[in-house]
DNA sequence: GCTGTTTTTATGTGCATACATAAAAACCTT
DNA sequence: AAGGTTTTTATGTATGCACATAAAAACAGC
């Protein structure tokens, strides 16, 4: 066996992936330690470390101090979805983006929304409904609740020409968020706005973002029937 | 201003994130270079590099050689979904997993499936339909096409007791794949198996995996109505 | 045998240094 | 001024070394 040399971490990574895919290292197997691999590959341990760390991030390796590195028994595929501003998303498809605000009001939300904002019982929130269009056709329906405080520095903003989706992403700091994907049947109102038959299956994204412990905004995006989001593994 | 010291890359990362969130560094801003930050933070440039690289991976920073590092103008949220074996997914919810094979045959697929396998025009593929149940209730319907060659080493396998989902993930090497999420209306057959009303909105995952240039398998997973996948941002 | 303690060991990380590389900026040349 | 070439510079990465840390394994005491 010709002990080949792999000088940079990318080629070490490639070789490690090759061995995993070729089942030279099978799921559950303990692989040689960093020092040994470094010697075999003719590079520094740091380089091996960098490569193994990258592979571990993708979910194909499990690493634990002292216990060593082993090929994941349950290879968890990590699909990374890029969630961009909707305008950008549409434009990247080569389509013309337009935006239409449907409604904007300050009202006291129902108990469910209220609960997730942990706000005082009957304090009102901003509620925006808007439509995102691609080449004139409905692309996504945005239904959003916003903590009024986040608009304190932009008192005039009514999201008539710029979407809350875009404005918030650019102007509002947040520390963490949660996102969920599901399928829903369009209600009559929703179907009318999306110009699709009632009860159509619509792809749905629910997102909530917080700044520290304060809920900033909560949004439901209903995409026109047929919408699909894709990514590589 | 007390020039604080940040000795490890995690605290440098935290500080960088703080500055971005606090809008001390605004979207589009060019931030100081690594060497300057290293001096400010009282650590080595490698440490700053590690921290900035991590933040850049999350999409909040754009880095280019010579051009420097800037806060992303269009902060792209990267949502990483963990796609595990369905059995594990169910068990992790604390539910009892059961599996039922619905059908298994070797037939020549329609043109669409055929095309994605790039196989000879009329060569037959394996077609498996199976149901995954959680606590006895339908959880997901799996509709899968498999290249017969991948079963060459397991001639007896008919996916009667172990799902193709699990068997393939454990036994079949693959180099890359594609995954897509969408919403679909359940057909009559599908609804019957999932025990839901016809035309219910069902969350759908389509996945294709390749080994080098050969298509290994293609699967469509229809989840019972109400299914939602979630992740943190 | 069963505890709790110590040792060992593989990964995790920090640092100084060196060089690689991409791309902006400066400098020519015509 | 336009176009091509060189320089500069910020990031990217490899290396040897040191030490930190978590956890398995060995050991001790009872």
What does this structure look like?
Two copies of one chain form a homodimer. Chain A has about 230 residues and is an alpha+beta fold. Chain A is about 25% helix and about 35% strand. Chain A has seven helices and ten strands. Chain A has helices spanning about 10-20, 35-40, 45-55, 85-90, 110-115, 165-170, 190-195, and strands at about 60-65, 70, 75-85, 95-105, 125-135, 135-145, 175-185, 200-210, 215-225, 230. In chain A, the strands form two sheets. A six-stranded antiparallel β-sheet of chain A has the order 4-5-6-9-8-7. Chain A has a two-stranded antiparallel ribbon with strand order 1-2. In chain A, helix 1 (about 10-20) packs across helix 3. At the A-B interface, strand 3, strand 7, strand 8 and strand 10 of A face strand 3, strand 7, strand 8 and strand 10 of B. The structure holds a DNA duplex (30 and 30 nucleotides).
């Amino acid at each position: 066996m010709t002990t080949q040399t792999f000088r940079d971490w990318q080629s070490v990574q490639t070789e490690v992936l090759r061995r995993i895919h070729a089942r030279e290292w099978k799921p559950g197997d303990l692989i040689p330690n960093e020092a040994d691999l470094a010697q075999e590959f003719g590079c520094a341990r740091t380089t091996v470390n960098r490569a193994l760390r990258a592979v571990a991030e993708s979910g194909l390796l499990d690493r634990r101090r002292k216990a060593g590195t082993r090929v994941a028994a349950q290879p968890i595929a990590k699909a990374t979805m890029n969630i961009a501003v909707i305008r950008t998303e549409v434009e990247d498809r080569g389509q013309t983006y337009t935006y239409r605000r449907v409604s904007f009001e300050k009202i006291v939300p129902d108990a469910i929304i209220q609960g997730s904002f942990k706000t005082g019982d009957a304090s009102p929130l901003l509620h925006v409904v808007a439509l995102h269009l691609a080449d004139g056709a409905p692309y996504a329906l945005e239904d959003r609740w916003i903590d009024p405080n986040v608009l304190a520095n932009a008192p005039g903003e009514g999201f008539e020409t710029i979407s809350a989706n875009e404005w918030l992403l650019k102007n509002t700091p947040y520390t963490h968020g949660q996102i969920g994907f599901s399928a829903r049947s369009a209600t009559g109102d929703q179907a009318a706005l999306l110009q699709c038959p009632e009860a159509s299956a619509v792809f749905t994204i629910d997102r909530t973002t917080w700044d520290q412990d304060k809920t900033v905004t909560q949004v439901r995006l209903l995409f026109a029937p047929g919408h699909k989001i894709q990514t590589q593994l």
